[in-house]
Amino acid sequence: MIKLLPFFLTLSMANGQTLPYLLPDEKSNFEHVLMTHLKKAHTHIVLLTPALNHPVLRRQLIQSLSKGAKLTLITQNPSNDPLQLVAYSGVDLYLYRARPLSDTLILMDNSVVCHLSGGLSEEELSQKSQNALCSDEPDLINAIHQNMNRILTRSKAYLK
Hints:
Endonuclease, Chain A, 10 strands
């Protein structure tokens, strides 16, 4: 049985894991997982959201930027946190106006993706009933990355 352990370990690493969350009941668990993955992000974070107003998330993004990660932020509403984050080096802010955004996607180092039905504001996460999930499945990450690139090509840079 011990000889099969490396086989099962390899198999479990090849298959991704998806963790669903029901907000606001599991808000603290979702935020903990999200902050943990943001701390581990070393190269690139892509954040697509209709609105961003979350002080704890903003602080973690700033810490990731100080460690050398790049942030690509695509939003429809540049007020609140996006305007504060654009002042840091390594942040690219884009405005997406083609159609209304209703969901949030966060892609970290092409290794983890989190999806949230709604915007990333402290108030929405605490009061609005919504679904969230984080996954490290490679096929899902590749599909999300391709879709985010399509949205990015339709977006306009905030600072030119």
